[in-house]
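Key result, reporting period 2: structure in, sequence out.
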C-alpha cells in the first residue's frame, strides 16, 4: 500500500534493497511473450484501451515510451465515480483498480501489441491482488476492453498464454467491464517522468522501461 507521495512498502525497503534491485532484477523478470495469434483489423482513427497492472506510475511510464501511443493517463477503473479518489481506492474496498487509459494510433501500434508489451514487461499476471511491493485488490492485474473486438483479442491472448505455459504459475489476470474511467489526481500523472530519481521508480519501474527498450527496440521511444 502506498501513501500519496511514495509507493510505500517499496520506499521503506528502498534503503536496503536499492543497489541490488536497481542492478536489473526487475528487468530480468521480464518475459518476451509470444505475439498474439488474434489481432484486430486496423481502424480509421485513434483507439482507447485500459490496463490495470499494479501501481499506475509504472504502467503509465512504460506506455509513455511506446511508439504509437498518443497519451497515457493514470486513473481508476472498476468502481463507481463517487469512490474514484486515491484515499478511498487505497482502502481496497471500492472495486477500483489503479489503471491507465491508453490512447493509441492503431496504424502504428495495435491493441494486440499493447497486450504483448503489458504481459512482457509491465505486469506479472500470476500475482493475485498485488504487484511487486504493493498489495490489495486495487493493484490487481486486469484488462478493461473498450470494444467487443478488444474483448475477443484479450480473451484469445489469455488463453494462448495459458496454453503456452509462459509462466510457471497460473495466470490470474482478469478481463473486466469498466463502469467508467476516472483520471487520478494531478500528482499521479506522469509521475515517472517528473520524478525519475524517486526510489520506488528506480527500483520497480525504471527496469520495466529498460526491458521495453531491450525486448522491443523497434517499439521504444525515448
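The corresponding designed sequence is given below.
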Amino acid at each position: 500500500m502506498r501513501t500519496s507521495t511514495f509507493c510505500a512498502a517499496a520506499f521503506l525497503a528502498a534503503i536496503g534493497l536499492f543497489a541490488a534491485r536497481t542492478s536489473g532484477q526487475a528487468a530480468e523478470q521480464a518475459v518476451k511473450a509470444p505475439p498474439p495469434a488474434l489481432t484486430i483489423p486496423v481502424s480509421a482513427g485513434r483507439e482507447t484501451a485500459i490496463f490495470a497492472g499494479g501501481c499506475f506510475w509504472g504502467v503509465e511510464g512504460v506506455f509513455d515510451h511506446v511508439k504509437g501511443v498518443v497519451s497515457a493517463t493514470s486513473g481508476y477503473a472498476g468502481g463507481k465515480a463517487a469512490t474514484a479518489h486515491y484515499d478511498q481506492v487505497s482502502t481496497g474496498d471500492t472495486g477500483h483498480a489503479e489503471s491507465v487509459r491508453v490512447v493509441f494510433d492503431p496504424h502504428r501500434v495495435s491493441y494486440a501489441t499493447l497486450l504483448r508489451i503489458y504481459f512482457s514487461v509491465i505486469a506479472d499476471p500470476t500475482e493475485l491482488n498485488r504487484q511487486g511491493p504493493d498489495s490489495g485488490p486495487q493493484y490487481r492485474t486486469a484488462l478493461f476492453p473498450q470494444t467487443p473486438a478488444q474483448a475477443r483479442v484479450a480473451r484469445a491472448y489469455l488463453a494462448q498464454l495459458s496454453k503456452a505455459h509462459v509462466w510457471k504459475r497460473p495466470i490470474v489476470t482478469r478481463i473486466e467491464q469498466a463502469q467508467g474511467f476516472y483520471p487520478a489526481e494531478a500528482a499521479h500523472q506522469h509521475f515517472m517522468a517528473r520524478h525519475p530519481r524517486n526510489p520506488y521508480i528506480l527500483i520497480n519501474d525504471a527496469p520495466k522501461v529498460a526491458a521495453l527498450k531491450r525486448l522491443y527496440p523497434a517499439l521504444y521511444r525515448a
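The longest strand covers residues 69-77. Helices lie at 8-28, 56-63, 86-89, 111-122, 148-164, 191-194, 199-215. This case is discussed further under Risks and Mitigation.
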